[in-house]
Amino acid sequence: MRSEILPQLFVALGEMSHARDLLNTVLSGPAGIQGKEELSSPLSATLVTKPPPITSVQAFNAQLTIGSKDESLRKAANLFKCAAESMERSRLKGEKYWVDALRIRRANWGLTPAPLPLGASTGKGADKTSKDFVISYGLEGCK
């Protein structure tokens, strides 16, 4: 186990030493420089700016962007149009179903009062109407 861990510990020691040296260099700044030579800094930064885009490439990229947005909008509009047409077809089909159902019911499913039950009073002041209905139906008008 010692032979496996010891090399990794030496690598870690080396990395820590490099990190310590780097921090000492950065924190010392110009005061840590010895002698009369004046260096700006032991570490220096370089600022790199992106070159301006070529006008023709920029125009082409804009055309690509506009074209892809236009295509996306056309696809979305087509999707909404198809959905609206489908909803309209469903609405018309539903209306036709209920119109047909009411027409058939009116023609074939008449509600007539049921006859009075046996033994019901039929004399003066008696209720001569039934609370029940007889449903008479036929399928002659169905298609």
Summary of the model, kept short:
With 143 residues, this protein is mainly alpha-helical.
Please specify the SSE layout and strand pairing.
Blueprint (H helix, E strand, L loop, with lengths): L1 H27 L26 H54 L1 E4 L19 E4 L7
Antiparallel strand pairs: 1-2
Subunit structure: Component of the Mediator complex.
Keywords: Activator, Nucleus, Transcription, Transcription regulation
GO molecular function: transcription coregulator activity
Number of helices: 2
Assembly category: single chain
Task: Note the beta-strand portion.
Answer: 5-15%
Shape: elongated
C-alpha end-to-end distance = 91 Å
Strands, total number = 2
Please outline the major beta sheet: 2 strands, antiparallel
Average pLDDT level = 77
What is the string of helix and strand elements?
HHEE
Poorly predicted runs of 5 or more residues: none
Radius of gyration: 47 Å
Main location: nucleus
Keywords: Activator, Nucleus, Transcription, Transcription regulation
Family: Belongs to the Mediator complex subunit 17 family.
Subcellular location: Nucleus
What does this structure look like?
Belongs to the Mediator complex subunit 17 family. Pfam families: Med17. One of its GO terms (molecular function) is transcription coregulator activity. The model has no long low-confidence stretch (mean pLDDT 77). This protein is 57% helix and 6% strand. Strands 1-2 form a two-stranded antiparallel ribbon. It has helices spanning 2-28, 55-108; strands spanning 110-113, 133-136. The protein has a domain at 54-106. The protein is built from two helices and two strands, in the order H-H-E-E. The chain has 143 residues and is mainly alpha-helical.
